[in-house]
Amino acid sequence: QKEVEQDPGPLSVPEGAIVSLNCTYSNSAFQYFMWYRQYSRKGPELLMYTYSSGNKEDGRFTAQVDKSSKYISLFIRDSQPSDSATYLCAMSSGGYQKVTFGTGTKLQVIP
Amino acid sequence: DTAVSQTPKYLVTQMGNDKSIKCEQNLGHDTMYWYKQDSKKFLKIMFSYNNKELIINETVPNRFSPKSPDKAHLNLHINSLELGDSAVYFCASSFQNGLTDTQYFGPGTRLTVL
């Protein structure tokens, strides 16, 4: 079993839809949870970061962490064609421990 | 201003050759990383350096040798290139201040081994 599981998609949605992206993980030591967005032929860029359980909102993006279920989510409201990218979840136990990435979910928002 | 830069952006070479990829960050970060992203987009860490010291060394063939001349630079040298080395290699950096591991990535180097 991989430490971090993420559905690779692709996920196609119409413009304006609410998008839900998810990851599950097996390592209970993970405390830092991140979502990265990667456009085609570009490096990943940090989108959202949360520590431990709870919700965090930033504009159209909401990140949720449920440590009891080992499940994290990223919601995108009013999705735009410019949101079309691959979204990678990432997590770490902190300090000098490595960050483990999911395989990424490819999202396409259709105008 | 480029935060994390890598050179070259594209690298096409023959099997058996030796090549280097350079990375520089101007963010003042203490920690730098090398990642390999395969054709299925799986991003896997290879090495991590903190203030020029190696702190993470995943199971990587010893044909790959990182070098950090100072904390703003982390280069990757690859000996005897193999077909399976074809991938996109990303350099990244982070503050590593104990509160967050948020990493800032370079644009990637697309390596093709023929």
* Beta-strand segment tally of chain A: 11
Roughly what percent helix of chain A?
A: under 10%
Please trace the helix and strand order of chain A, writing H or E for each element: EEEEEEEEEEE
Tell me the distance between the termini of chain B. Answer: 34 Å
Oligomer: heterodimer
What does this structure look like?
The complex is a heterodimer of chains A (111) and B (114). In chain A, 0% of the residues lie in helices and 55% in strands. Chain A has strands spanning 4-6, 11-14, 19-25, 32-38, 45-51, 54-58, 61-66, 71-76, 85-92, 100-101, 105-110. In chain A, strands 2, 4, 5, 9, 10 and 11 form a six-stranded mixed β-sheet that branches. Chain A has a five-stranded antiparallel β-sheet with strand order 1-3-8-7-6, with no helix packed on it. Chain A is globular, with a radius of gyration of 13 Å. The N and C termini of chain A lie far apart (37 Å). The relative contact order of chain A is 0.35. The model of chain B has no long low-confidence stretch (mean pLDDT 89). In chain B, 0% of the residues lie in helices and 55% in strands. Chain B is globular and about 35 Å long. Chain B has 114 residues and is mainly beta. In chain B, strands 2, 4, 5, 6, 9, 10 and 11 form a seven-stranded mixed β-sheet that branches. A four-stranded antiparallel β-sheet of chain B has the order 1-3-8-7, with no helix packed on it. The interface between A and B is medium-sized, with 26 and 28 residues.
